[in-house]
Design goal:
It is an enzyme of class 5 (isomerase). Belongs to the helicase family. RecG subfamily. Its EC number is 5.6.2.4. This is ATP-dependent DNA helicase RecG. The chain has 702 residues and is an alpha/beta fold. It is built from 24 helices and 22 strands. The radius of gyration is 31 Å and the shape is globular.
């Protein structure tokens, strides 16, 4: 928005004042007129329809009735006081009840007069009832007024706001005042050629009709226009950042494939690359030859072979005289990458080192020296890699694992580790739906590994209710008899941590009785035990000294036990889809058939059913992520809360995927011909962009 009048503090709007302004700021973050204009109704009520009392049923969300008041009285004492009234039409009688504001309501109700009543219907003792209805004295004028405002907006409010008479109706009045005074000040922010091409309503009309629509069609047009605008400017910002980086940051050129890459590929690689891995390596190869800094997101399910692709990209960099590093969010993950890469390259092939918070000072000193003199080619670690004292001779490639756990500032620190910024490869094992990836990582190019390595059998997922518990125990014994190991995972949700821990301990006791010593050995791991105890228990399981690991979700990331072939998830209905999928990825690491068993209580919510059915139906992380996005909305997908990018007011990334693609394509076309937005028809865009981004100039990366 950012048109001058709309930056006016909210207290100056007619009907607000200081006290109401304070509560609007605290409760709804409405600080100025723009914020109020963009506090959109969450639904509209059709006020053209009237019900007869006989046809009312409590399943209806709200009803509107014309009836005559036949009786009223105040019942009860002090705290139980209530006003009860009866109204009647030609089909029956309905009871009305109020528990608050009794004096005011009673004063305004006259027996014998007819009223237009509006509210949520209920049943009390088998009779129709309505509590706290909206009441208007019936008259032809009132009917006309209601008929004119066919779709009435409903706004979100809070208990605190209601104390200041700012319920939905109160907020509606403020928005009405605002539009009366300032509708003429709403400026257009899209060029005419875009408005015509996409058949968009004017901006001023869109704001009027999203609050007070003339009819259902106009409401749909208003929503479409405002969604388009929101997604368009989001993509404009992301693609502008990408464009700037291409112009501003030159990239090191990896122009040759040399002995490191070739020897590894021909003699050390223990398996054939999948077609998806080959495709991604080709995309990376092209990126690193263009003389522009690569910024690529590599998406792939757990076990799809992202680490091998990262390693081969690193060997490409080493062949061209550069050093490389991998940054992981936790020590466990950094150590796992280190061990995986050491196993793949073997001894005396290329020097690899691990740098984390627990690296001893003596080892640190050696690492620092070898980095500075260029001897050390691959450094793997945590945040320790970006400390100022870590200096590289010639850093050419940075691999970042699970980017959503790293801030943009941390990435930027790595860029500064070389005169020409290193190429960046971001890996994530959290499958992100395409539209979400284009928004969260819209300034990165995206590669996807969408097939599993040969020899990996898809994990079989089964859902059992509590009454099949003995059958599941029998299955576990069969698998253990084959020499396999089993995970049993319990939820750990902060709100009910005590209860969860009790479930874990109760479960542990039941399993200990069912799988007694000395034939069976168990490990137990949960968040509250000491790190050294946890490590000890983990190691016993990794070495195969225990056959069953009973744990909370601490094992979600970073445990790789190829011999573990069964994952049992208790209370599976309490986990989110992406978490269930991540947990399932802990098995299926070896060549044996693996199983994921979802245990749940008998009664499931509709969402719970969809989640568990989705898990049974598919192993495809992207399908799962799409369902997750539809069920939970983008704000709850892991890593998106802190991004700030998903603060969308009208658009919905799961429902508006096609529109997002159209907006992105439109922005790409504009930048292809007018990257600085200097042409006369794009001046309006340039101004709107600058205003939205607080004066940010085109040569600054945000």
């Amino acid at each position: 928005m950012n048109d001058q009048p709309f930056q006016t503090p909210i207290e100056y709007l007619k009907g607000v004042g200081t006290a109401r302004a304070d509560v609007l700021k605290k409760e709804l973050a409405i600080k100025n007129l723009e914020d109020l204009l963009e506090h959109f109704p969450f639904r509209h009520i059709d006020r053209t329809q009237y019900y007869k009392i006989r046809n009312i049923n409590p399943d209806l969300p709200y009803v509107q009735v014309i009836a005559r008041l036949v009786h009223k009285e105040v019942l009860g004492e002090k705290h139980t006081k209530r006003l009860v009234a009866q109204v009647q039409d030609d089909t029956g009688v309905m009871e009305l009840v109020w528990f608050q504001g009794l004096k005011w309501v009673e004063k305004n109700l006259t027996v014998g007069k007819a009223y237009i009543l509006f509210g949520k219907p209920g049943l009390f003792n088998g009779k129709a009832q309505m509590s706290h209805p909206e009441i208007d004295l019936y008259s032809p004028e009132a009917m006309q007024r209601k008929g004119n405002m066919t779709l009435q907006p409903v706004y979100s409010s809070t208990e605190k706001l209601k104390q200041f008479s700012l319920d939905s109706k109160g907020i509606q009045k403020l928005v009405s005042n605002l539009l009366e005074q300032h509708a003429k000040d709403i400026r257009e922010n899209l060029p005419l050629y875009i408005i015509n091409k996409f058949k968009l309503m004017s901006r001023a009309n869109a704001f009027k009709n999203i609050h007070f629509p003339e009819d259902a069609n106009k409401l749909a047009e208003a929503k479409y226009r405002l969604k388009f605008e929101e997604l368009f400017f989001l993509q404009l910002k992301l693609l502008k950042n990408k464009l700037l980086r291409v112009q501003k940051f030159k990239g090191n050129i990896f122009d040759k494939i040399g002995p490191y890459f070739n020897e590894f590929y021909n003699t050390k690689l223990p398996f054939d690359l999948t077609n998806a891995q080959k495709r991604v390596l080709r995309e990376i190869r092209l990126d690193t030859q263009r003389g522009v800094q690569m910024n690529r997101l590599l998406q792939g399910d757990v076990g799809s072979g992202k680490t091998v692709v990262a390693l081969m990209t690193m060997l490409m960099a080493i062949d061209n005289g550069f050093q490389t590093c991998i940054m992981a969010p936790t020590e466990i993950l950094a150590t796992q990458h280190y061990q995986t890469i050491k196993n793949l390259v073997g001894e005396d092939f290329v020097e690899v080192a691990l740098l984390t918070g627990s690296t001893k000072p003596k080892e640190r000193k050696i690492i620092h020296q070898k980095l500075e003199n260029g001897e050390l080619k691959i450094l793997i670690g945590t945040h320790a890699l970006i400390e100022d004292k870590v200096k590289y001779q010639n850093l050419g490639l940075v691999v970042i694992d699970e980017q959503h756990r790293f801030g943009v500032e941390q990435r930027a620190k790595l860029w500064k580790k070389n005169i020409i910024p290193p190429h960046i490869l971001v890996m994530t094992a959290t499958p992100i739906p395409r539209t979400l990836a284009m928004t969260l990582y819209g300034d990165l190019d995206v590669s996807v590994i969408d097939e599993l390595p040969a020899g990996r059998k898809p994990i079989k997922t089964l859902h059992f209710y509590e009454n099949s518990r003995l059958r599941v125990f029998g299955f576990m014994k069969e698998e253990i008899a084959k020499g396999r190991q089993v995970y049993i995972v319990y939820p750990l949700i902060q709100e009910s941590e005590k209860l969860d821990l009790k479930n874990l301990m109760d479960g542990y006791e039941v399993i200990s009785r069912e799988f007694p010593l000395p034939k069976y050995r168990l490990s137990v791991v949960y968040g509250k035990i000491k790190p050294e105890e946890k490590e000890f228990e983990m190691q016993r399981f990794v070495k195969g000294e225990t056959q069953i690991m009973v744990a909370t979700t601490v094992i979600e990331v970073g445990v790789n036990v190829p011999n573990a072939s069964v994952m049992i998830i208790e209370n599976a209905e309490r986990f989110g889809l992406s978490q269930l999928h991540q947990l399932r990825g802990r098995v299926g690491r070896g060549a044996e058939q693996s199983y994921c068993i979802l245990m749940s209580k008998d009664k499931l919510s509709p969402d719970g059913k969809i989640r568990l059915n989705t898990m049974v139906k598919t192993n495809n992380g992207f399908e799962i992520a799409e369902t997750d996005l539809q069920l939970r909305g983008p704000g709850n997908i892991e890593g998106t809360q802190q991004s700030g990018l998903l603060d969308l007011k009208v658009a919905d990334l799961s429902a508006d995927q096609d529109l997002l693609m159209q907006c992105r394509k439109c922005v790409e076309d504009i930048f292809a011909t007018d990257p600085q937005l200097t042409s006369p028809e794009n001046q309006i865009l340039n101004r709107a962009f600058m205003a939205k981004n607080a004066g940010l100039s085109w040569d600054k990366i945000s």
